[in-house]
Specification:
Layout lengths: L2 H23 L8 E5 L2 E4 L2 E2 L13 H4 L21 E7 L4 E7 L25 E5 L9 E5 L5 E4 L1 H14 L5 H7 L5 H10 L6 H10 L5 H10 L7 H9 L6 H13 L6 H4 L8 H14 L5 H6 L6 H19 L1
Parallel strand pairs: 3-4
Antiparallel strand pairs: 1-2, 4-5, 6-7, 7-8
Helix pairs in contact: 3-5, 5-7, 6-8, 7-9, 9-11, 11-13
Length: 334
């Protein structure tokens, strides 16, 4: 081979090697983290990681090397519209653990509500919260829910499955299902307990009434509220009234409101002295219900208390007061 040919062969080999090195140096294309196949069909890709520290700081390198999931859409109040606040989320995994992490921005943090610290309490839903559900059945209907709020309160449950089951049992109105509903009122999840207490409305049995009365002492105020509302239709008398009277000093006025309403529907005259103080409560809705309940009971003993609040600043309260006084007058005339 001549010197010229040798030089050209060497140059060609060097050029080929340079091209291969350049090709090797190019980053391997990474599939997109999110694929949208329609408004209701979104696929997010999980990324592998080394074990992470669960401290809420999100300062491991993985959070800078893996792009977050963004561009979330609203469900409420404008379904399908872009979210008004920025959210970044990551789906990560290692050999033993699935990690879900998120950064949630808020342009008005002073408006945030975060006051629940109890584990597995349904009130977390009423706080600012981050929630995800794993569709373990792959039926787009049931799954396992995980939830937290800015205070770090935790909640997890297979609530959807149990709540739906309880609701269906209540809808069927089968007396033989009362023992199952009674058992569900002791469920660990307050959402299930609320559904179970409400579902017992159809039954007029002593077992159902006793179960609802016990629910008046539940740790979750919304369970107590539903129990207080349900008792008026449970076909009970003094046994229901005694339970309702016991919650007229409940720390939540919503519970007291439903108890007052039920005592009125039961026309329980011994409750009048306990209902009268509610006419002076700061919450207008409770004052209105108290006046209405006293009208349903129509006991002349309440006349003076009603006349004393005839000039209540709330028009709905004044309306109920006038009606209650008319009911008492009608009863006296009869």
């Amino acid at each position: 081979m001549t010197a010229g040919r040798l030089w050209r062969a060497a140059a060609a080999a060097a050029l080929l090697l340079s091209a291969q090195i350049a090709a090797w140096a190019q980053p391997v294309p990474v599939p997109s983290l999110v694929r949208r196949d329609g408004p209701d069909a979104v696929t997010a890709r999980a990324s592998r990681t080394t074990p992470l520290t669960l401290d809420g700081r999100l300062d491991e390198a993985i959070y800078t090397t893996v792009a977050p999931l963004t561009d979330f859409l609203q469900q409420e109040p404008r379904e399908g519209q872009p979210a008004t606040e920025k959210t970044e989320a990551w789906i990560l995994y290692d050999d033993t653990t699935l990690y879900i992490a998120a950064r949630c921005w808020d342009s008005h943090p002073e408006r945030e509500v975060a006051n629940e610290l109890r584990r597995d309490n349904g009130n977390i839903l009423g706080n600012e919260n981050f929630t995800f559900v794993i569709d373990t059945f792959h039926d787009k209907r049931n799954g396992y829910l995980f939830q937290t709020n800015p205070l770090g309160a935790l909640r997890d449950s297979d609530t959807n499955v149990r709540v739906q089951a309880v609701s269906v049992i209540g809808f069927l109105k089968l007396e033989e299902a009362v023992p199952a509903l009674k058992s569900a009122t002791g469920d660990a999840d307050p959402l299930v307990r609320r559904a179970a207490v409400g579902a017992l409305t159809f039954s007029q049995t002593q077992t159902a009434r006793e179960t609802i009365v016990r629910a008046l002492g539940d740790s979750d105020w919304m369970v107590r509220e539903i129990a207080a509302e349900t008792l008026a239709g449970a076909g009970g008398g003094k046994d229901c009234a005694a339970g309702l009277l016991a919650v007229l000093d409940d720390p939540f006025w919503q519970v007291r409101l439903k108890a007052v309403r039920s005592l009125g529907r039961l026309k329980h005259k011994p409750a009048v002295p306990a209902i009268v103080p509610a006419l002076g409560h700061p919450q207008a809705n409770l004052r209105k219900e108290a006046a209405g309940a006293l009208g349903e009971i129509a006991d002349p003993a309440a006349k003076g208390a009603l006349e004393a609040v005839a000039d209540d600043p709330d028009p709905d309260v004044r309306k109920n007061v006038r009606w209650a006084l008319q009911q008492i007058a009608a009863g006296n005339a009869a």
